[in-house]
Design a protein that fits this description.
single chain; mainly alpha; 5 helices
Length: 90
């Protein structure tokens, strides 16, 4: 089934570099944006979950958590590098 696992695959395919901030931008602009525009209904179901019946949204929970864990790992690299400023890590 094509679902939010595409986000995790996209993040895995996007290499990390020595620039944590650039990696977060790359993940958001390239991976999440591409997924959003290529699969707007899946993005709404798997990420936004607005107006989606609970039983349908539940089917996407694992994929959603996997993709967000990868994004949070990139955010963690920002924190380690001291680049989050006053912002908190998710």
């Amino acid at each position: 089934m094509l679902d939010a696992t595409c986000l995790a695959f996209g993040l895995d395919a996007s290499p990390t570099t020595d620039d944590p901030a650039g990696d977060v931008v790359e993940a958001g602009v390239v991976v999440f944006r591409r997924f959003t525009f290529s699969h707007p209904a899946l993005f709404t179901i798997g990420v936004v979950q607005s107006g989606v019946p609970v039983h349908i949204a539940r089917a996407f929970c694992s994929a959603q958590h996997n993709a967000l864990a990868r994004l949070h790992a990139r955010m963690g690299r920002l924190k380690t590098a001291g680049q989050l400023g006053a912002r908190s890590e998710p």
